[in-house]
Amino acid sequence: MKVFKPCCLLIAFVFLMNAVPAEAQNDYRSLHQSALVVDMHADVLLRLLHGVDISKRTATGQVDLVRMKEGGVDVQFFAVWPNPHKFLPDSMYEQSMYMIDELEKLIRSNPDKIMSARSVKDIQEAQRNNQIAAFIGVEGGTAIENSLEKLQVLYDRGVRYISLTWNDSNDWASSAMDETNPKYTGHKGLTEFGRQVIRRMNELGMMVDVSHSGEQTFRDVIETSSKPVIASHSCAWALASHFRNLKDEQLKALAKNGGVVFLNFYPGFLDVEFDKAYQALRKAAKPHLDSLKVKYGAETGKYFSERAAYLKSKTDPIQPDIEVLFKHMDYIVNLVGEDHVGLGSDFDGISIAPKGIEDIGQMPEITRVMLEHGYSESRIRKILGGNFMRVFRAVTNDR
Ligand SMILES: [Zn+2]
User: How far, in Å, from the CA of 233 to the mean position of ligand 1?
Assistant: First the structure.
């Protein structure tokens, strides 16, 4: 006889509560709101650092707590990005700590809207209390400053994934940008210490993120990790041959490992033709944007707002729509199955998103598009959050 543990009964209860009546199956909003929706990567903390109050609806940017709620987002991974272009006195580790402090302040000030989450149990608690479950992902292994002790501190502060690199390589892992740069002369892949980092992350129950990692680093990670691996914000290279995307062989390796690729919404990673046109447009716009920077000086909020409006006016004619995101999703589903894809918007880290999904409040549109293309309810639930839960449980041994 099978004996169900209390936590299994709770999961079954939550599942039943989430079931959508047959007559409402075509109602994408009710399906979306009842599903667990996970966004694996957003850079909104950068706006917080610029003094923007994201607890209220904001006219600029792509994420705030109000729009997260409207978008039906249940689990949000907040990216902590130690900026390699920022100079002393803050080290990469200290920058990361500071960003975590800022997220904690936001959570403390908005206990009705958001809670700090580290486990499956926390997600369930946030669901019961109608709060957003806030997780931390560190974007860049530079944050650990070559120290397993600092890795431990980050884990203790709630970090549940680390992207091994950002665009810059570090002492123990090489990035996709560097590995694809013919002038790069540093090491490629993981060093022995890099492998130790992966093994320690596996032991701690921290997800290993290969978004931004080079192909050699990716191969070394797959060989080393005993747990499923994620790509928190990347797309399919076969549809858009950008170094930030994953080739078919990588997607297959990730699926074999039990992992998930969470799709980035940036049109430049979804459509290479857009990317070329956008880069040219930005180059042409640079003198005007530079003059705006001088005009506003320390008033960075005004600068970002006018910059965004100016770029929007220029990009509108070439901006792809939400179907381009679906194409990548569907390509991956056809290549490796529905268990290995999810959403990692990169909102507030990207200057533009496809029409129809331009901020986090529009997340239900993804569910609408999936339904329109004939995806089943169970597949949609996996892509919105179920696939994340499977990997998270496997990595954290949390049932
Ligand atoms: Zn990134």
Answer: 7
Please give the distance, rounded to the nearest whole angstrom, from the Cα atom of residue 166 to the centre of ligand 1. 6
Confidence (pTM) = 0.90
| Ligand 1 centroid distance, CA of 168 (Å) | 11
Q: Say how many Å lie between the CA of residue 7 and the centre of ligand 1.
A: 35
Distance from the alpha carbon of residue 376 to the mean position of ligand 1, in angstroms: 30
User: For residue 128, how far is its CA from the centre of ligand 1 (angstroms)?
Assistant: 31
C-alpha closest to that of 120 among 17, 11, 5, 28: 11
| Cα–ligand 1 centroid distance for 3 (angstroms) | 43
Instruction: Collect all residues with Cβ–Cβ distance below 8 Å to 101 and sequence separation of at least 6.
Output: none
**For helices 120-128 and 387-396, what crossing angle results, to 10°?**
130
- Peptide bond just before 317 cis, omega within 30 deg: no
Alpha carbon of 365 to ligand 1 centroid (Å):
23
- What integer pLDDT is reported at residue 383 of this predicted model? 98
CATH superfamily of domain region 28-271+321-396: Metal-dependent hydrolases (3.20.20.140)
Q: Compute, in angstroms, the gap from residue 232 CA to the centroid of ligand 1.
A: 8
Ligand 1 center–CA 187 separation, angstroms: 21
- Cβ atoms of 67 and 360 within 8 Å: the answer is yes
CA–centroid distance, residue 349 to ligand 1 (Å)? 7
Return the percentage of the chain with pLDDT > 70, whole number: 92
Q: End-to-end CA distance of the chain: give it in Å, rounded.
A: 20
**pLDDT digits over 90-113, tens only?**
799 999 999 999 999 999 999 999
**String of b and e for 57-94 (b: at least 16 CB within 10 Å)?**
ebebbbbbbbbbbbbbbbbbbbbbbbbeeeeeeeebbe
Distance CA 356, CA 328 (A): 16
pLDDT attached to residue 87: 54
> What is the Å distance from ligand 1's center to 270 Cα?
14
pLDDT at 305: 81
The CA 158 to ligand 1 mean position distance, Å, reads 20
Instruction: Choose the weakest-confidence range: 145-149, 274-278, 320-324.
Output: 274-278
- List pLDDT tens digits, range 139-159: 999 999 999 999 999 999 999
| All structural domains of the chain with their residue ranges | 28-271+321-396, 273-319
